[in-house]
Amino acid sequence: MDCEDMQMIISEEPNLSERKEGGKRGRKPGRKASNEKIDIRAKLERSRQSARECRARKKLRYQYLEELVADREKAVLALRAELERYRLWSSELSESRIPNGFQQLLEETGFVKQEIIV
């Protein structure tokens, strides 16, 4: 191969540093088609719908948690009342008195058997 053949081969190969205009990736500025605008509008509408659904789920989750907290607060109040009742009973028992409702509790739990009068 002589020098002329080498130059012909080199001139036929595309220059790697140069790129064709059509070979670029990404969006082309100023070339929006109407179907792309429709796609963007559909995408925006889907996004809005998704946001609405997310807010609705969040609202339901907060309502559920508020109800759960309210139920737990009621349970805590009931347990505090029961604890106070047991404290009163304990103080009355230490003074050798039978408190009101204590006999019924013993019967319900089975510590004292009810006598059946015939």
UniProtKB/TrEMBL annotation:
Residues 44-87 form the BZIP domain. Gene3D superfamilies: 1.20.5.170. Keywords: Activator, DNA-binding, Nucleus, Transcription, Transcription regulation. Residues 1-42 are annotated as: Disordered. Its main location: nucleus. One of its GO terms (molecular function) is DNA-binding transcription factor activity. It is found in: Nucleus. InterPro entries: bZIP, bZIP_sf, CREBL2/REPTOR-BP. It comes from the Eukaryota. Residues 33-42 have a biased composition (Basic and acidic residues). GO terms for cellular component: nucleus. Belongs to the bZIP family. ATF subfamily. PANTHER family: CAMP-RESPONSIVE ELEMENT-BINDING PROTEIN-LIKE 2. This is BZIP domain-containing protein.
